[in-house]
Amino acid sequence: MERAPRVPMNWQSTWQFSHLYPLYNTTLNSSNNLFYNTHNTTKMQPEISELIVLQIIHTLLTLQNPGSTTVTSGKVSLVRLTNEIQNNVLVNQMVDRGEDKLDINDILLVVHRVFPNQRISLVDGQLTFHNLQLNELHQQIRNRLYTFCHSHQTAIARIEDDIANPNRKPNTTNLDPKREKLLQLYRDTVLNKLHAKSSGKMGLPALYEALSATGALSVVSQPTEIDRIKNDTPNSVHELQLVLQKSICDGTMSSATDTPTWRAARQLQIDFDDTVQFMRRALE
């Protein structure tokens, strides 16, 4: 049987997903627990899976009905829909942190959840959408995306403010000694990797010194105090990771592409990701 051509991502699809990935990547596993989920894989967040399914259904139906706002009887192959979701480049980036990809059963559950009042039939592996308003579907995607981005941006801003202003936090919580030692071990291991003294690479402190010497740090609103990270015990693994991620992003975003500081920041990002994954497995 001839294989159906792959669906090109139109500009709207790319716009939706490209805004989704940085937030998803930043807020993944954003609870205050010390350890990550101990399973090898985790389910994708419902908000993410719903946006993915809606966006690709919208793209498939729009390609079938160019210029139309209403689909009288739009058919989408469930197998093709699953393949598009599982093989999409941007989707693969979003699930590259250990989450399960959506399978056919997951997709059917999502479709049932996001189209509560829509008449849909499933016959011979074909989902048929009856009298579906494409403009309403597009607006639903935009509304869901805005809600998702706004809620996570608010959460990130609150965490960043807590980190930037530690004195505002009430000094009433005492860390369990065993937990405190684990956090310090995690902090020291990650920082030792990012200092890169023996590898000949530019470490995080050297990167900040280079950025300061060239005046690049002037574009950073709140530069991270690298020395403070070494001496303070983080309240959680996630707090430490957020501080270090911001420090690396300072180097990436304040440097011109392909300059030595930019390349050093990109290498630090790779080292940071590898170390976080190593520590995650070790702690589990």
UniProtKB/TrEMBL annotation:
Q: Which InterPro entries match?
A: EAF5 (IPR026226)
At the top level, the lineage of the source is: Eukaryota
Full protein name: Uncharacterized protein
Lineage start:
Eukaryota, Fungi, Dikarya, Ascomycota, Saccharomycotina
